[in-house]
Structure formats: structure tokens, C-alpha cells
Automatic annotation (TrEMBL):
This is Helix-turn-helix domain-containing protein. InterPro entries: Homeodomain-like_sf, Recombinase_CS, Resolv_N, Resolvase-like_N_sf, Resolvase_HTH_dom, SSR_resolvase. Belongs to the site-specific recombinase resolvase family. It comes from the Bacteria. Keywords: DNA integration, DNA recombination, DNA-binding. The active site is at residue 11. Residues 3-136 form the Resolvase/invertase-type recombinase catalytic domain.
């Protein structure tokens, strides 16, 4: 016997699941897994339980596709995994379902368009970086410490009464930044004091 199993998610405690639950009920889902978790969270225990409960011939139903995937690539991977297990997928809002040939085609066109968009963004980014380099600009983060500051820090740390923590506060950086950017191996540091 096949089942239509629903999954509903909202991102914050302030949001309500009622709209999704009503739509999933009307769509014939007798079982609905629900949770309040950000779509960016990798830990979504209810979704994991839902995916485990699905059997070949079942259909996973969501109110909207973004309820299921953290990103488009994540969504495509999840639906491909379901398809490999013989489980259908249906999104009520987008009217996409993968149990028919037309639905599968629509989903794959959608996924291909998303891949195309990602490639365009990558190409534009690369072109922008090349153009910036041609004008003498280098990408990446601005360095937290310039060469003059590194020399000053090195001089300060020669004083046995000054700790790395004090210097880091003075320059508005972390101790890690100082360790990464200033050669301090041969300096005698009072590090346990004031750290």
C-alpha cells in the first residue's frame, strides 16, 4: 500500500505551520512530519525521520520546494535520492510532481536552469576578477595588519611585560591574527600572564 507523506517546516518559532498542514491534509497526506528549523540547518531530525519512513511507491509531499532543500543543489540531490528509491515527490505550490513523465521532465528542466544560472554567476565572477586584475586590483579580504603594524607589534612583544592579549586588544585583532601574521618564535613571551 502506498502513502502520501507530508513534510512541513517553518524557519522560526514565530511562524506557524497551519497553512502548510492544511494544504498537506487537503492533498491527502495522513502523516505529516513537521519542524521549526532554519532551512540552512543541516540538523533537521524530522526530515530525517520522514525520509526514513518513505517506501517505494510512496510520495513525499511538500507545500513548497524550499521547505525541503537548503539549496537548489541540496533539493536536486534529495529528489534524485528519492527517485532512486522509487519514491515520488510533489510540491503543491509549484505544481511539480515526479511520479509522471511530465512532472519528471519539469523538475529536470528546473534543475538544469538552476545549474545554468550557477554557471553564469561563476563565469561573471571570473570575468569580473580578471577585469579587476587587469586594472591592478587584487581580490580577497583586506589584510588586518599592514607591514608597519607587524613591525610595531614585533617591537612591542620584545618587552617581557607586554602580552599578546594586550597587543591584540590594542590593534583590534585576535591573538590568532598576531600568531599568523607576525614572526614571534624567538621572542620571550609572558603569555600565561594576562591571557
Amino acid at each position: 500500500m502506498t502513502h502520501r507523506i507530508g513534510y512541513a517546516r517553518v524557519s522560526t518559532d514565530d511562524q506557524e505551520l497551519a497553512l502548510q498542514l492544511d494544504a498537506l491534509s487537503v492533498a491527502g497526506c495522513l502523516t505529516v512530519y513537521q519542524e521549526k528549523a532554519s532551512g540552512k540547518d543541516t540538523e533537521r531530525p524530522e526530515l530525517m525521520q520522514c525520509l526514513k519512513a518513505l517506501r517505494s511507491g510512496d510520495t513525499l509531499v511538500v507545500w513548497r520546494m524550499d521547505r525541503l532543500g537548503r539549496s537548489l543543489s541540496d533539493l536536486v540531490k534529495t529528489i534524485a535520492d528519492l527517485e532512486a528509491r522509487g519514491v515520488g515527490f510533489e510540491s503543491l505550490t509549484e505544481k511539480i510532481e515526479t511520479s509522471s513523465a511530465t512532472g519528471k521532465l519539469m523538475f529536470h528542466v528546473f534543475a538544469a536552469m538552476a545549474e545554468f544560472e550557477r554557471n553564469l554567476i561563476r563565469e561573471r565572477t571570473q570575468a569580473g576578477l580578471i577585469a579587476a586584475r587587469a586594472r591592478g586590483r587584487v581580490g580577497g579580504r583586506r589584510k588586518k595588519l599592514d607591514e608597519q603594524q607587524k613591525k610595531e607589534i614585533k617591537a612591542l612583544l620584545r618587552d617581557p611585560d607586554i602580552s599578546i592579549t594586550e597587543v591584540a586588544k590594542r590593534y583590534g585583532v585576535s591573538r590568532t591574527t598576531i600568531y599568523r601574521n607576525v614572526e614571534i618564535e624567538n621572542l620571550a613571551l609572558p603569555e600565561n600572564k594576562g591571557s
